[in-house]
Design goal:
With 209 residues, the protein is of the alpha+beta class. The protein folds into two domains: 176 residues, Alpha-Beta Complex (Spore Coat Polysaccharide Biosynthesis Protein SpsA, Chain A); 30 residues, no CATH class. Helix content is 20%, strand content 32%. The protein is built from five helices and 14 strands. Strands 1, 2, 3, 4, 5, 8, 10 and 11 form an eight-stranded mixed sheet that branches. The chain has a three-stranded antiparallel sheet with strand order 7-6-9. A hairpin with a 4-residue loop joins strand 13 and strand 14. The model has no long low-confidence stretch (mean pLDDT 89).
C-alpha cells in the first residue's frame, strides 16, 4: 500500500471534501502538498520526493469516492486514472479519445470497465514506479504539444505510452470536480448557469428543489 499522494493546491488549501478523504487514508500513505502555479515543476517535485511504489496525483479541487485509491491499486496497472469531468461546458471526461481530430470522451460513451485511452488528465492519476523510471526526469514538461498550451498531462501520457505504459481510464472510479455555478430562480425551478471557456453558459433545464 505504501506510496505518495501529491496534492497540488495552487495558492490555497485543498477543498474541504478532499481533506476529509485524505484523513481516511492509512498512515503508510505519504501526503505531499505543494503550492504554486508552476504545474510541471510541482508535479516533478512530488515525484522526486516520493516514498513507496507509486504516486497518486490529486488536484486540490477534486473529490475522490471513499475507496477510489484502493480501486485503482487493485487493477495493478502501471498508469491508470479515475474519471474526472472538465469543469466547463460541455463537461467532457478528462481523457483524450483521439489526437486528429482532437476529441475527448463523453460520459455517455464510456465502457463499463477499465480501458486504454490516448491520454488522461492528472486530477486523479495513479503512476507506478515502472512508469516513473521509464519516462525519466523531467516527467512533466510544458509547451511540448503546443507553445501556447501547458498540456503537461497530455505530453506525459504520450511519453509514457512510448515507454510501453499506455494510460488507462476506470469509468467506475468517479471523482468529483469542484466548480462555480450561478443559481437563478425561475417558475420551473432553479436554473443553473455554468462556466464555459469564454464566460457563462445558461443551463436550459431547471433543477427541481
Amino acid at each position: 500500500m505504501r506510496g505518495t499522494i501529491g496534492i497540488l493546491t495552487g495558492r490555497g488549501p485543498a477543498c474541504d471534501p478532499l481533506q476529509d478523504w485524505l484523513d481516511t487514508l492509512p498512515s503508510d500513505v505519504r501526503r505531499h502538498r505543494i503550492a504554486g502555479n508552476q504545474i510541471a515543476w510541482q508535479r516533478n517535485e512530488v515525484i522526486r520526493a516520493r516514498e513507496g511504489e507509486w504516486v497518486l496525483f490529486v488536484d486540490a479541487d477534486c473529490i475522490p469516492s471513499l475507496h477510489a485509491l484502493d480501486e485503482l491499486l487493485e487493477h495493478d496497472l502501471p498508469l491508470v486514472s479515475g474519471t474526472v469531468l472538465e469543469r466547463v461546458f460541455p463537461f467532457d471526461v478528462c481523457a483524450v479519445k483521439s489526437v486528429e481530430p482532437y476529441e475527448r470522451y463523453r460520459c455517455t460513451e464510456l465502457p463499463r470497465s477499465v480501458f486504454p485511452v490516448v491520454a488522461v488528465g492528472t486530477g486523479f492519476l495513479l503512476i507506478r514506479e515502472g512508469v516513473i523510471r521509464g519516462v525519466g526526469d523531467p516527467w512533466f514538461r510544458c509547451g511540448q504539444i503546443s507553445p501556447e498550451l501547458l498540456a503537461e498531462d497530455f505530453d506525459f501520457s504520450l511519453r509514457a505510452a512510448e515507454a510501453g505504459f499506455p494510460p488507462y481510464l476506470d469509468p467506475n472510479v468517479g471523482v468529483g470536480h469542484e466548480t462555480r455555478v450561478i443559481l437563478w430562480p425561475g417558475e420551473e425551478g432553479i436554473a443553473v448557469q455554468w462556466p464555459d471557456q469564454t464566460g457563462w453558459l445558461k443551463y436550459r433545464e431547471a433543477l427541481r428543489p
